[in-house]
Recover the amino acids of this structure.
């Protein structure tokens, strides 16, 4: 079968429609967390959110490898972004997010 006959179907591209950029950055409206869960669930949930914010801040600042993200660097990024300094567990979670996102 000729290669021309195997033409893929056209797909929708972001270039054909406007891409929404939220500049200047505004946080998303907060919603209450679901009630009735054990306390540990809320602690873990908030820790994951904090780790994601810190991982994004590190990536934006040019730290792309988990090996480059020492606890001191993660904590300085937290101060820069305006987040309370993370615990050792949260720093470990930040490195895990950076490592497994590839």
């Amino acid at each position: 079968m000729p290669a021309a006959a195997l033409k893929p179907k056209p797909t929708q591209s972001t270039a054909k429609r406007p891409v929404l950029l939220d500049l200047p950055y505004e946080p998303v409206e907060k919603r209450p967390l679901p009630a009735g869960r054990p306390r540990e669930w809320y602690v873990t949930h908030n820790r994951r959110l904090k780790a994601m914010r810190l991982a994004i801040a590190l990536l934006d600042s040019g730290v792309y490898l988990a090996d480059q993200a020492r606890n001191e660097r993660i904590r300085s990024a937290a101060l820069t972004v305006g987040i309370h300094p993370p615990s050792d567990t949260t720093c470990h979670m930040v490195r895990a997010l950076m490592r497994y996102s590839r």
Notes: The helical segments are 39-60, 71-81, 88-100. The mean pLDDT is 81. DSSP finds three helices and no strands in the chain. The radius of gyration is 20 Å.
